[in-house]
Write a structure and sequence with these properties.
By secondary structure, this protein is mainly β. About 5% of the residues lie in helices and about 35% in strands.
């Protein structure tokens, strides 16, 4: 008797397996996995649709399992609120190239590498080459062990409101704006510690309302740290500010309360 069960051709099986592989996956620990395939083909979460930015919605833990590559200067890589994003050693990359010391960039736009509103964590990877900021966050957020390189505007931007922001153990270099810009009216309770902030077009750190401790800030086009605005107290200690603002003979820092152990150019002149 002839078998009347419909057969699936090998080519169809291949397409089906690709599509299934691109569907959002949840690891055994409940973390939702993100990769280029699901970003482009299916969406990577229940709140996401195909294409960039990958929209994380509100809440949840996410982990990259591949690099993410965005081709348009006006398109962001990842966006959402109240999420924990582990880049897992991978990169989120846009099309912009920046070079020189301090950096100049070959294009700009509105795309942000990671656009996380309030209460987000971004860690363990690289964000580079976006038309606007590398990482933009709001209040109660944390950026840890990141490399934020060659974005057309600020490397880190607290434009969504930066109360209680923590920036730790990260490299912010060769961006076309400030290295770190945290100057929103509600800025307070910030901690910047153990970061290298180098070669950005404007100030290394433009921020006030917290503590800046044990950072190396060098070769930026503006001052190494500008905390002379906003009426908030800023303490800084153990930092190295060198070769900013056109050279060591020029002011390296503006404002702030020197709590000791800082090196501010040559001669060593801290305010």
């Amino acid at each position: 008797m002839k078998n009347t069960t419909p057969s699936i051709r090998p080519a169809a099986l291949l397409v089906l397996s690709i599509l299934l592989g691109a569907t959002a996956a949840s690891a055994d620990d409940g973390v939702i996995e993100i990769n280029q395939a699901c970003a482009v083909n299916t969406g990577c979460s229940a709140t996401d649709s195909p294409g960039f930015p990958v929209t994380l919605g509100t809440g949840g833990a996410y982990r990259l399992t591949s690099d993410l590559t965005v081709a348009d200067v006006n398109t962001s890589g990842v966006s959402g609120s109240r999420f924990d994003l582990d880049l897992n050693g991978f990169a989120i990359s846009g099309p912009v190239n920046c070079s020189g010391l301090p950096a100049t960039c070959d294009a700009s736009g509105s795309g942000v590498g990671v656009d996380g509103f309030n209460t987000v964590t971004v860690r363990n990877g690289t964000v580079r080459g976006f038309g606007s900021h590398g990482v933009r966050v709001g209040a109660y957020s944390e950026i840890v062990r990141m490399r934020i390189i060659g974005n057309a505007d600020s490397g880190v931007d607290g434009g969504w409101g930066s109360a209680a922001l923590r920036l730790l153990d990260s490299l912010i270099t060769s961006n076309g704006g400030n290295g770190v810009k945290i100057d929103s009216p509600g800025a307070r309770g910030m901690l910047l510690r153990n970061n290298t902030i180098e070669g950005n077009q404007l100030a290394g750190i433009r921020g006030t309302g917290g503590a800046f401790i044990d950072n190396v800030v060098s070769g930026n086009g503006g001052v190494g740290m500008n905390a002379a605005f906003g009426g908030q107290f800023t303490r800084f200690s153990g930092n190295t500010f060198l070769d900013n603002n056109g050279g060591n003979a020029n002011p390296q820092v503006l404002g702030g309360i020197d709590s000791g152990g800082n090196l501010c150019g040559s001669p060593n002149t801290c305010p």
